[in-house]
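cache lookup: miss for this entity combination. No prior model stored, computing from scratch. Input as submitted by user K.M.:
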Amino acid sequence: DADVTQTPRNRITKTGKRIMLECSQTKGHDRMYWYRQDPGLGLRLIYYSFDVKDINKGEISDGYSVSRQAQAKFSLSLESAIPNQTALYFCATSDLAGNTDTQYFGPGTRLTVL
Amino acid sequence: GQQLNQSPQSMFIQEGEDVSMNCTSSSIFNTWLWYKQDPGEGPVLLIALYKAGELTSNGRLTAQFGITRKDSFLNISASIPSDVGIYFCAGPRGGSQGNLIFGKGTKLSVKP
């Protein structure tokens, strides 16, 4: 079984709809992240959480919100989806070890906003 | 702001050829990470580097932490079709412990 799972894997929605993307992990990591990937732009951080109830904005948090309900779960919401939020969304987890903060990614959710 | 520049943006090579790509930073890093993203998947860590000048291998992959601490290099020897994907460099985001900043990636295509 995958350590980091995302649901749904694909979603098509309409402008103005509320959307929630879910992430679950079995790695036992404290830290969780949401990124979006757009062609040619790499991975950009939306929000991150270092523990339950800890929420921090990333580079591009406008238009998004998150909830860290438990250590293993971190959900991303688009309150009112717009077409330029069409992208590939990744959840990641990490547990600080040694010098680095290696991150483990889920398989991604492809979101299309019409 | 802090930026990572990866070069080249894309590469089209013949199977068996060696590949070189690099990443430069506008600031000093104390860690460099190289990730690979297979088509349709999330990125996976390939190599982590922690010291300036460090050279680390993972199979046919070799990565180096530049001595200026502002760059890193990834080489792939004798490429094979499964090397196809996007390679990202990453490093700690300044002033934000536990966060990474990613380059925009190098997309590798391999012709059999």
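stored under new cache key. Chain B touches chain A at residues 9, 30-31, 33, 40-45, 48, 50, 88, 92-93, 97-100, 102-105 (CB under 8 Å).
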